[in-house]
Amino acid sequence: MEMTNAQRLILSNQYKMMTMLDPDNAERYRRLQTIIERGYGLQMRELDREFGQLTEETCRTVIDIMEMYHALHVSWTNLKDAAGIDERRVTFLGFDAATEARYLGYVRFMVNVEGRYSHFDAGTHGFNSQTRCGRNISGC
Q1: Could you say which DSSP state residue 103 is in?
Q2: Average pLDDT over residues 71-85
Q3: What pTM value is reported for the model?
Q4: Mind listing the domains of the chain with CATH numbers?
Q5: Could you tell me the maximum CA-CA distance found in the chain, to the nearest angstrom?
Q6: Is the pLDDT of residue 140 over 70?
Q7: What is the mean pLDDT of residues 77-98?
Q8: For 135, how many CA atoms within 13 A lie in the half-sphere containing its CB?
Q9: How far is residue 27 CA from its own chain's centroid?
Q10: Residue 126 in 3-state DSSP?
């Protein structure tokens, strides 16, 4: 990632402010500030990863998965006798943060920012299922 000195100074100041605004992640912001200020080329590539992209097709696929789990859970709730079906099998657990972080981020955006699927239980891990579900989402 190539940046002018002015861009580096602006970004460094942003990380400094983030350190003060978000003490829980202050160490991370200090590290990024140091990388920017000193121009460590190898580590600056990490910043590129911060600016990911999900295609429209991938976003729609993630929404389709969430819609499917919504329909499954509604159907399960409407069953007269659901005793033979474990609720966890029809509950949206999310995506694995280690291998599906981009999808997980989109789910969190949809729920926390867009206000959709607020009825889904984020659990203690915020939709991090902590297990790869094996979904192959094209367009990634």
Answers
A1: H
A2: 88
A3: 0.62
A4: 5-50 (1.10.287.680), 53-135 (1.10.3190.10)
A5: 66
A6: no
A7: 87
A8: 21
A9: 20
A10: coil
Ramachandran category for residue 134: left, alpha or beta (phi over 0 → left; psi -120 to 50 → alpha): left
pLDDT confidence bin for 131, thresholds 50/70/90: low
What tokens does 69 get? 């789990």
Burial track 68-79 (b if 16+ CB lie within 10 A, e otherwise): ebbeebeeeeee
Mean pLDDT of 89-94: 88
CA 93 to each of CA 51, 132, 134: distance values in angstroms, whole numbers, following the listed order: 25, 11, 13
Report which of 60, 128, 68 is spatially closest to residue 93, judged by C-alpha positions.
Answer: 128
Statement: residue 113 has pLDDT above 60 = yes
The pLDDT, as a whole number, for residue 133 is 57
Handedness of CA 23, 28, 34, 37 (dihedral sign): negative
pLDDT the model gives residue 122: 83
Burial class (CB in 10 A: 0-12, 13-18, 19+), 62: buried
Structure tokens at 56: 């429209």
In angstroms and rounded to an integer, the radius of gyration of the C-alpha atoms of the chain is 20
Strands, E assignment, 21-70 = none
